[in-house]
Each structure stands twice: as structure tokens, then as C-alpha cells.
């Protein structure tokens, strides 16, 4: 199964794409896929028909509601991550596939501005995985009250626990 999936990924990686983001020869995964994102949802994107979860980050689910303390309005907590991801994916993406678990691909992705996971965490729209590579970026976003870490935002319990621990 894994050999077939690796062959398919390599086949996709050899197809031409006119975008500015391409796979590099020194990628950390066994395969790389690049192109325009066909769909995305916070921490997952689809490229060339393959769903790839961005490793090292987490985003709230669509069912999680956040609220503004000043306006008292509730909103889907995942919306800021989807919005920011859409902006970052506009010029294409390249993902090194690091792991295959069942039918899920896990990868580290790059966009024109840099590492996609790092950019989402630094913007305060995604949470760094515990002991992951983006913890310093999360600490900076928390300190700067960026994105969902803004003092005006009421967060779901698990996210609020991260904010309280940082304080």
C-alpha cells in the first residue's frame, strides 16, 4: 500500500506546474507534491487530489465557537485559520510528505512566504503541537496577542488552557 502511494506521489510530483513553489531536491520527506491548493480547511489542504494534514499544528474545529468580549458576537473559531491559509496558498504550495497513516498524508508545506505551519502559528490562527517545532512561534504570538490569542477573544477550553499556561 505504501509503495503504491509513494509511486503515485512521485508521479504527481513530476507533472509540470507553472506556479512559483516547487519541491526541492533536499526535501525531508520521501515524496513531494506541489501545485495550487484545490481545497483547504485550517490544518488540511488538498493538492492534486491528495489531502495533506500540515504537521505540527492544530486548529479549532468548525464546531468550536469563539466570541468577542467587546461585541459579544460568536464566530466559528476555525474561520481565521481558513482565511489566513487561503491567503498564503494563493501562489501555490509544495508539501514534503513525512508520514502516511491510513488514508491520511502528513506533510510539511512551504508557500511563497515560508513554512506554512510556522506562518499559521505565528499569526495566532493555529496552535503549535506540544513539543513541536513551532512552540517558539506560538510563544511570540501569545505574547503579542495575535489572532485568536487576542485578549478580546473568548476561546474554547483547550485553547484557553494554552493561553493561561503561557501567562
UniProtKB/TrEMBL annotation:
SUPFAM superfamilies linked: Staphylococcal nuclease
Leader sequence segment: 1-18
UniProt keyword list: Signal
Superkingdom to which the source organism belongs: Bacteria
Signal listed as a keyword: yes
Matches recorded under Gene3D superfamilies: 2.40.50.90
InterPro entries, alphabetized: SNase_OB-fold_sf
Protein name, UniProt field: Nuclease
The organism's taxonomic lineage, starting at the top: Bacteria, Pseudomonadati, Pseudomonadota, Alphaproteobacteria, Rhodospirillales
